[in-house]
């Protein structure tokens, strides 16, 4: 249960400002955030992890602000409500940097070198130099982001679970030196959908296979039209194989099971062609995400409002952060009052 003794449990989660969100980002995280907010069971803090973007994109920061506005437009369009959730930018709450520095002092280097995503990314990212100090330390910044608000839960995908575990280890070490300042946050695992992209691999901006929430209908139709189908189906009269066809598998995600079954049957019996199925797929995407896309486009026409929302949320977050940091400074005997 999310509430104990009348106090709502806290959730903290963030996203790097990558710009327009794709359907995979929505299904894999944002939809869950909106659901947690709408449940009314949690006090939600959602932040733009712009300093995290800096750890790897330090050589060119020119896109970060616009990417932030685009991403937050998608957040708001999808249903995040600044009256019910605190939506803020990490860089507008500089206390995160202070806590990061203090946690850096108590975090053994070996813990960071062992983080699986660190090793993986060092091996796989070749287009930029991530041999920098901040990149190694980003799980410490992440720990600061979470514990600053004394989060009870962190909604995470499986690949992020090790970061929350590391946060708990850092909390234990800090509390061991300085007293029980921070609670240990727990992961909040939820069933999320991993969407395939237009080439069948996981949907990802870097693979160039993404359909974006904001894509207008003609773009969605064009992306669906370009999807690769069964190469063994040469003639329109050849039977289809929906179980191994990306178009059919993706279509199944967006329509009711019975509707997908009926389309599969038509494919199997060559009553429809790939073009028909792709059209049906595009229709289902437009129907499901069309309202979000429209709202997001409207918000982007008023970027000042989006920026104000971020600033207001950041001021609220900062009040919380200042309370925590006063406690931290007392605990580490760096208070001068
Ligand atoms: S869309 Fe239907 S007919 Fe086309 S390849 Fe897929 S299963 Fe076969």
Please sum up the structure shown.
The chain has 337 residues and is an alpha/beta fold. The protein is 55% helix and 9% strand.
Q: What is the CA-CA span between the terminal residues?
A: 40 Å
The helix content, as a percent range, equals: 40-55%
Q: Strands of the biggest beta sheet: in what spatial order?
A: 1-2-3-4
What radius of gyration results from the CA coordinates?
22 Å
Category from helices, strands and their pairing = alpha/beta
Low-pLDDT sequence parts: none
Instruction: Encode the helix/strand succession as letters.
Output: EEHEHHEHHHHEHEHHHHH
What best-fitting shape do the alpha-carbon axes yield?
A: elongated
Counting DSSP H or I runs of 4 or more residues, the number of helices is 13
Largest sheet entry = 4 strands, mixed
Mean pLDDT across the residues is 91
Instruction: Catalogue the ligands.
Output: iron/sulfur cluster
Question: Beta-strand percentage?
Answer: 5-15%
Number of extended strands: 6
